[in-house]
Amino acid sequence: MSDFNAFYDAIVAVVGTRASGVKVVDDAVSLMLDVSGLNADDRVQIEADVREAAERAGAQSVRIMLTAERITPRLIAVASGKGGVGKSTLSTNLAIAMARAGRSVGLVDADIYGPSQPRLMGVEGVRPEAEGKMMIPVMGAGGVPFLSMGQLVKPGQAVAWRGPMAGNALSQLVDAKWGNVRDIVVDLPPGTGDIQLSMIQKHKPVGAVIISTPQDLALIDAMRAINFFDTAKVPIIGLVENMAGYLCPHCGEMSDPFGSGGAEAAAIELGIPFLGRIPLDIKIRMASDAGTPPALGDGAISDAYAAIAHKVAAWIDLPKDSPA
Ligand code: ADP
After folding, report:
1. What is the pTM of this model?
2. What domains lie within the chain, and their CATH numbers?
3. For ligand 1, atom 22, which residue shows the shortest CA distance?
4. Cα–Cα distance between 282 and 277 in angstroms, integer?
């Protein structure tokens, strides 16, 4: 994994968010390069600069696909019925797992009550720059560009936006200089408030991922979120069960503090896809707090996020005029 980061950092240092979909297999690097707005000479130059940066970082081969298409990113909403169920953690790791699969993905932290992405993405205190009136996303863990509500206010200042103010703040994050980012994962606040309404009215997401813990009470709240998106005609991509099954690090015994399987049963009952289950594991909390999201690593947890990312990616790639 350190290889990916080394390559990514080298490339981003040269071209910022113009690079996306960086993929590293052994020492072969491939990526997309947004050359929109550049003349022919500058395009040749920027491509050469990226190639040189990747080779200096140790790449044996570098494949660059140029694109000049103005891309309007598709938004993937990540929502929960209530706070504390792991929505922000899922959003971060979903975006990173999608990026690791070679997709050009960004992350928006729209949680006005507790924006946590700067910490989770390992870049707390880094302020985004702007070009004209547009913000330039900050590069976070795993090479995922992101913007957060937390970056619109002074550090430590509470955000108390309501109605149109909340909507304008969301628009600033979504209508930013995303380069050729194709998909943006949007970490919504819990529940069904102003940000959700504004998201649906102004920036209709292609679909929503709902996360819940397995117990009945949490699922009742999740159901409310599902109904909200249903009513707004935003398709539900599926349901994720978080904090299911606790593996005791001391005795190795598996227990189910919040039960297990409740979300899967609920998904079946509602006729929506079940996207996967993430265990309750202290390593997830610790890695998240340290700004090194578990999806960056290898092993069972990273695989679980990768499997969810795969299902989400497959869903958004389906032609939308056919029933999903
Ligand atoms: P939300 O966005 O729903 O409020 P967070 O993603 O901030 O929730 O998660 C709440 C807390 O639970 C954080 O400390 C996070 O690190 C932790 N957490 C989330 N998912 C897991 C998990 N599967 N195992 C252990 N801790 C988790």
Report:
1. 0.81
2. 4-67 (3.30.70.1350), 74-317 (3.40.50.300)
3. 280
4. 15
